[in-house]
Specification:
By secondary structure, the protein is an alpha/beta fold. It has helices at 54-69, 98-107, 122-127, 137-144, 158-171, 216-227; strands at residues 2-5, 17-18, 21-25, 31-35, 44-48, 74-78, 113-117, 131-134, 152-155, 175-183, 190-195, 205-212, 233-240, 255-259, 271-274. The protein is built from six helices and 15 strands.
Length: 282
Amino acid sequence: MKTLNLDINFNPFGKEEKVEFESFLFSGGEPHIKIKSQLIDNDEVMITHRLTSFNDLGLFMITVDAVRRMGVKTIKACIPYFPAARQDRLMIPGEPLSVKVYADILNTLKLDEVIIFDPHSEVTSALLNNNRSVTNHKFIAEVVSYLPKDLILISPDGGALKKIYKVAAYLQNYEVVECSKSRDVKTGKLKDFRVYTDTLNNRPCLIVDDICDGGGTFMGLAEMLKQKEAGDLYIAVSHGIFKRGVNDLLKHFKQIYTTNSFKTIENIEGVHQINLNQDLLS
């Protein structure tokens, strides 16, 4: 297999032969690519990219077209963070079902396989053709290897509950404590954080979730966990967006663990980024 890594800082299949290319934006803002490596029809090409904007999606799509026009029959993709995966249901009139829009666009490319990592819900997997959805199990297994043995896994809300019990079953011998919150669907404001246990007995706690965006969920939960006598607090999120940075989070949490699915984080004390690789994506 040959790999074409559109983001030069994201290389999950490190040992594979690289496809060389040049990409740039025209003055009108349109992305463009020129593939420099020779490709033949029996090559299998894996295109990887971190889709964080519509321009990223545009570059990805024209790359698929360029590779196909070189005669390649088997084209696969690795898109670890699936865009708009959180917009997987209609909350109020006038909003789009954004995840379906992205899935419909990608489905037109007729890719042989699309690897996605820890999607927000099963809706993404149901909408995206030929996808292989990779769980967070191996990622969390690596995270807990750095942490105390008496660790408690914390489910931040009802949406994460099903997945965290599967993680606990994979890891074995880890207790799970459930939490909840409520959100105003019109304003997005969070409130009514609850932790469903009498006491955490000063044990270390790891909140496990798929995405950290602004961090409001985690900071709200941290206060409630401390009220329930939690020990050191940790976060493990598959996709670290961190639009407000991590300084406020690190006031509550001893360590933040994430992957490089969304962006590369370098040299931030208190943040441990685990790079996605062929093993974690298998």
